[in-house]
Structures are given as C-alpha cells and as structure tokens.
Amino acid sequence: MSSRIGVPRQISSTLVILGLIGTVIGFIMALSGVDPEKAGDVAAIGPMVSKLIDGMAVALYTTLVGGVLNIWLNINVNMLAGATVNLITEIVAVGERHAGP
User: Fold this and answer.
1) Where is the MotA/TolQ/ExbB proton channel domain (predicted)?
2) Lower CB density within 10 Å: C or N end of the chain?
C-alpha cells in the first residue's frame, strides 16, 4: 500500500511542471502579438495589447491551476499516507492481540 502512494505524489510534482510550462507558453503567446515596428501606429496598439493580455491570462491561469491542484493533491497524498500508516499499525496490533502471549 505504501508503495502506491508514489504515483499520486509524482502526479502532484508533474502538475507544477505543467503549470510552469503553461506559463512559458502564455508568455510566448503574449509576446508573439507584439510587433516593435508597429508600436508607433495607434491603430495597431489595440490588437497588440489584446494579444498581450490574452497570453498573460493563459500564463496566470495555468500557473494558478497547476499550483492549486498540486496543493490539493499533496493534501490528499499526506492524508492517504497517514491513513496507510494507521491501517498497518492497527493490523499489526490486532495480529499481536490474537497471537497472545
């Protein structure tokens, strides 16, 4: 039972990495809409700012989702690990009571 706890713990770590990858993708999206040559054109600034905001939203949401899911899964992993230890302790105690002196 204890060995199976490693899988959710690995998923939890992977969620943080995926959140960071999403952040990088969001920044790439944000910066891909910026054209320095058109920065002086008033009509082009609106679409560039819109693309910048959309990319930043992706970056922030993926960071938030990865972090929140990591915290949630870590809490569950810790509860599962504690419950596993308690179950094993109780099984050993019952076995010792039945074994007698």
Assistant:
1) 5-90
2) C
**Six-digit token string for 24:** 């990088």
32 Cβ neighbours under 8 A, 6+ residues apart: 51, 55
Instruction: Report the predicted TM-score, pTM, of the whole model to 2 decimal places.
Output: 0.74
The set of long-range contacts for 83-88, using a CB threshold of 8 Å and a minimum separation of 24, is 84/1, 84/2, 84/5, 85/2, 87/1, 88/1, 88/2
- pLDDT, one tens digit per residue, over 29-73 is 989 888 888 878 888 888 889 999 999 999 999 999 999 999 999
* Gap between the Cα atoms of 30 and 99, Å rounded: 68
Contact 36, 14 (CB under 8 A): no
Amino acid in position 44: A
Residue 6's closest CA among 90, 92, 73?
73
